[in-house]
């Protein structure tokens, strides 16, 4: 079993309070037009008229050559963390495909695992990858812009 994971709530709350992003910059604030602004905390699109932030995000514990950093969107006001477990999050239904990449416990890409994958096949691909002992987690990124979407881990229990 797998679990789709949003960005950590404590980090989302820190950004909302004005903490610096991965580059130490204050998140930018904008108003959503309702088109293509996926929040990385609730893993749903930000509704038209709602405030959101754009910031540099690095979903890795430390800096290293594989620690990709890129822009993400986040509701400016509190939103619930995604709790859908193995269910495909709404943000992964807005494009026909996404880049799926697996990483080891050392946060390095496990070569040969990266593939542009149809949205409907993401869960099955992640389950196959996470069945391997050398893979600790799977990251989902935009196949067109390489923006981080969410992480997939083994479900506990």
Question: Can you describe what's shown?
Answer:
- Pfam families: DUF1203.
- This is DUF1203 domain-containing protein.
- It comes from Xaviernesmea oryzae.
- The chain has 2 helices and 8 strands, in the order E-H-E-E-E-E-E-H-E-E.
- It is mainly beta and 157 residues long.
- The protein folds into 2 domains: 2-75, no CATH class; 90-154, no CATH class.
- A 5-stranded antiparallel sheet has the order 1-8-7-5-6, covered by helices on one side.
- A hairpin with a 5-residue loop joins strand 7 and strand 8.
- The longest helix has 9 residues, at 122-130.
- The protein is globular and about 40 Å long.
- The protein starts with a strand and ends with a strand.
- The model has no long low-confidence stretch (mean pLDDT 96).
Task: Describe this structure in a few short sentences.
This is DUF1203 domain-containing protein. With 157 residues, the protein is mainly beta. Helices cover 11% and strands 29% of the residues.
Question: Which structural class is indicated by helix and strand composition?
Answer: mainly beta
Helix content: 10-25%
Number of domains: 2
Strand order of the largest sheet: 1-8-7-5-6
Average of per-residue pLDDT values: 96
The CA-CA distance between the termini, in Å, is: 9 Å
Contiguous uncertain segments of 5+ residues: none
* Cα shape: globular
Percentage of β-strand residues: 25-35%
Number of strands: 8
Pattern of helices and strands: EHEEEEEHEE
């Amino acid at each position: 079993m797998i679990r789709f994971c949003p960005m950590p709530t404590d980090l989302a709350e820190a950004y909302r309070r004005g903490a610096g992003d991965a580059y130490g910059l204050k998140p930018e604030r904008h108003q959503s037009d309702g088109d293509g602004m996926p929040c990385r905390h609730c893993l749903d699109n930000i509704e038209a008229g709602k405030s959101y932030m754009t910031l540099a995000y690095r979903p890795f514990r430390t800096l290293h050559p594989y620690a990709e950093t890129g822009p993400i969107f986040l509701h400016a006001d509190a939103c619930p963390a995604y709790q859908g477990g193995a269910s495909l999050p709404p943000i992964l239904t807005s494009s026909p495909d996404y880049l799926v990449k697996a990483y080891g416990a050392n946060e390095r890409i496990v070569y040969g695992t990266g593939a542009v994958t149809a949205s409907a096949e993401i869960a099955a691909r992640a389950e196959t990858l996470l069945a391997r002992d050398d893979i600790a987690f799977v990251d989902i990124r935009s196949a067109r812009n390489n923006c981080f979407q969410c992480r997939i881990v083994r479900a506990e229990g």
